[in-house]
Structures are given as structure tokens and as C-alpha cells.
Amino acid sequence: MPLGKVLIIDEDKNSCNTLKNALEKDGYSVILSHDGDEALIKFNALKPDIILLDVVIPKTDGWQICREVRKKSNIPLIIITSKSETFDKVLGLELGADDYILKPFDIKEVMARIKAVNRRVNQSNIIETREVTYDNLVVNMSRYELRVSGKIKDAPPKELELLFYLASNPNRVYTRDQLLDEVWGFEYYGDSRTVDVHIKRLREKLDGVSEQWSIKTVWGVGYKFEFNEKFGDT
Amino acid sequence: MPLGKVLIIDEDKNSCNTLKNALEKDGYSVILSHDGDEALIKFNALKPDIILLDVVIPKTDGWQICREVRKKSNIPLIIITSKSETFDKVLGLELGADDYILKPFDIKEVMARIKAVNRRVNQSNIIETREVTYDNLVVNMSRYELRVSGKIKDAPPKELELLFYLASNPNRVYTRDQLLDEVWGFEYYGDSRTVDVHIKRLREKLDGVSEQWSIKTVWGVGYKFEFNEKFGDT
DNA sequence: TACAATATTAACGAATTATGTACAAGTTTT
DNA sequence: AAAACTTGTACATAATTCGTTAATATTGTA
What we know:
Two copies of one chain form a homodimer. In chain A, the strands form three sheets. Chain A has a five-stranded parallel sheet with strand order 2-1-3-4-5, with helices on both faces. The first copy, chain A, has a four-stranded antiparallel sheet with strand order 6-7-8-9, with helices on one face. Chain A has a three-stranded antiparallel sheet with strand order 10-12-11. Chain A has helices spanning 13-25, 36-46, 62-72, 86-94, 107-122, 157-168, 176-184, 193-206, and strands spanning 5-9, 29-33, 50-53, 77-81, 99-102, 131-134, 137-140, 145-148, 151-153, 174-175, 213-218, 222-227. By secondary structure, the first copy, chain A, is α/β, with parallel strands linked by helices. Chain A is built from eight helices and twelve strands. At the A-B interface, α4 and α5 of A face α4 and α5 of B. Chain B binds a DNA duplex through α6 and α8.
């Protein structure tokens, strides 16, 4: 498999075939799925490299597929559908789709867009291991587990997600709005003081645990997970 | 301004304004360009973080802009144009555009697509760290961190932004009004003595640190960040 | 030199921003 | 159905920044 596996999720067999032919001609291998439930099973079992998704499908709907996929993975996901409302486009993109193509599509355009998304993704260092480690801190999002000095510390989901997000890009500052967007999700409309409170609760749990890292406030800007690689490797 | 600069290249002032307003509302700062030659100059000089490009523009055409940009940089580039042929779309994407949006556009969709592209780019290791370095001085705006001879020095946001702005164009003089415009934002209306005070506070922190650089007063004009590449590399 | 224009500095208070506590609504567990 | 927990909001308090003012110093020029 030189170019990778594409999972096509679409009820319409015509679309499926057009896409399948073009993709296989280009060297991809193709998996077809005609309803949402089947799609999720195949996604989990076969770990495709790209997903092409129509949101209008039987059983589990496309939006839900989107969410489920993005919970677990960052692979390229392109929505191809006849739902043409701006609202739907925005929803799809916000849920984590990389592109949103309208039916009827021109296969050449679709192939070009797949290529464009792939180009970006190949520049990424996607951490599929949903885990970060610093010194005595381990945040594992597959298990939703926080470990401090080897011991498991209970922490609610939101706090873990927030910590994980901050720790994924150590030392980089995020504004409260960015955090609300990325951790809470765009659908969330609320007070940005909310972030403060969660930060505070995290700090309670992580207080005085390590000299090497901490959650820092950047006054007037936001928060960051600060990590100092003190002592070089010896 | 944590979000970054957008360069809009488009002859049509209506489009420009719609985009500009929406982007600024979201916290981006916007640079406009109405022809290709000007666009390239601004691209090189101002190092934007995102480019929105109409390919139908006077002088150097959009495709060429695309090529020139991609020779030097991997920043997000989105084509927004009324050229609706599949051929053009494919060409644009092949030249390295991340997305291709048709006019007339819905601003909500455009914003969602910008976000989607940004999401991908932020996962890549080519995250542009907004940083300048001179001798023993490091100003890092991604971390909001000022480092002098390796040591972190605390400094409030405004001071950092001012220093970063000055240091981004070493040896170039800025009037107080220009600085108020660029650092404080155009909507700011206040005394230009304000700049003096911030300069003073910066100088306190950076006093006698290096022979190679300093913040100089240009009498009757304004301020500049002066940098002398004395000694060649040793 | 003297004078005017411009720049530096210190100090103060208003405004902005962050934190901590408490509570209520919503969930999940028992 | 009650209990325990999570989550978001409100508000009081604390901390810091920022802009202004005004007094002092410096520079350029007549």
C-alpha cells in the first residue's frame, strides 16, 4: 500500500464508485462504508489514513462520525456532501473536517483537494499517542489518566483536556479564547473566567510537584505550560 | 495581538473590507494589498502569518504570487476568487494553496476555512515562533518571554510588544505616532508621551546589557532599535 | 549664552486583569 | 431518589499594568 487507505463513507453508490476509481487509479486502496455504524467499526478496525465522508448517511449521522473520529485521531477528513448551507459547512469545519466539498463534485477538484490536505498533514508531526510526559508528570488521554510521580491522581475530564492541550505545546502561550475554542469547542459560548477556575483547580492538584514545570499565567495574555529542560543530558 | 497578521491581496475593495472587518473582529491584524507587485513587497517585508489571495489582480498575477510565496514559506495560503473553472481550482491547489474559495463568498464560511487551515498548520512543526534574536537578547512572542543573556526577565505585554516591534526592523526609525498605531492599535487615541514612558521602562530592563544593540532616541523624530554587527563571526 | 523645543524620569491613581470562594445547575453514581 | 461529583458563573478581593501629569534634563539653534 504505497499511498494509504481511504475510507469512503457515503450511501450513494455512484459517488462511491467515482471516488473509488479515481483513488485506486492514483494508487490508494479504498474501503467503502454505506452507513454510520459500519463506518465507525471499519474506522476502528482498519485505521484508514484518510476519510471521505458524506454527512447524510443512515444510522449514526455524519456529524457524529466526525466527532468520534476527531476524539481519537487527527487523520485527514474531508466532507463531501450535497448539504450546501453555510451553517452546515461551518459546522463540519468546526467539528474538525479539513475540507468541505459540495456535490455534485468534479473528481479532478476532489483529487486536488485531497492532495492539498495530504501535503499539509505530511508536514505535521501528529502525535497519535495521546500522551505527554514531563519529568514526573504523565497525561494520558487514551486512558483519561493523570499520573504524578507514578501515582494516579483523579481529575475530571475538562481539567485533563485543558492540561493536555497546554502541555502538548509547552511554553507556548494561549489566550483564554483560544483555550475555549480548542478545549471546550466552538459550540461553547461562555465566560472566559471559566478557564481561570479550571486552571486554579489544576494548580491545586499539581502544586509543588515539580521544579521543572508549572502552569504559568502570562499577565494580560493567557496561560502556558512552562517546562525547563534544566540539566543537559549527562 | 496574539493571533497574527493576515495579508489580503485583492483588487476589489468590497471583498477586502468584508474580510478585513471580520478578521479584525477576531483579533487578527490585517495588511491590504491591491496589486501583485505591492503584495510581494509586503509579503517579504512584513512576514504575514496567513495570505488570502485573489488570483485576478493587476501586475504580477496571482499564480505567480503563489509560486513566489511557496518558494520561501509554508504559511497558510487561501485563494479567494471568482475564477470558477475546475482547471483553475486544480492549478491553485497544485501550486500550494491550502484552499480555494469561490466568490461571492459567505464570510462565515471563509472564517471557518481559515480556522480549519490554521488548525492543521498549528499541528505541524513549522509553527512560526514569533521571535527575534540579537546577540544576548531574545524576544519570543509565542512564549511572551524576554531573555537577556539566557535569563528570563519579566516584562508586561505592552513593553514586550513594543520591543518586538522595534527589534523586528532594526535600525529603522519609528515616530511615536507610528508606534502608537502599530503597537497600540489604530483605535488608540492618547498622548504620545506614553511611548516615552514605555521606552524608559524597557531601557531600565535592558540597561548596559550589550554593546551591540540598544534602543536609541532619534531627536525630533522617534525611536529605533539599533544593532551593529561589529566583529564578524569568530 | 540664552532660549525654545524636545526628551527623560518619577510618581500617582484609574483601569484592567487575575485569583479565590461560594454556590447553583447539571451529571453520573450509588 | 439521594449522594457525590463535575462544571460554569458570580462576586469580592488582590495584584499589576498603563497612561497621565508635571517636574527636570537634554539638545538644537539664534
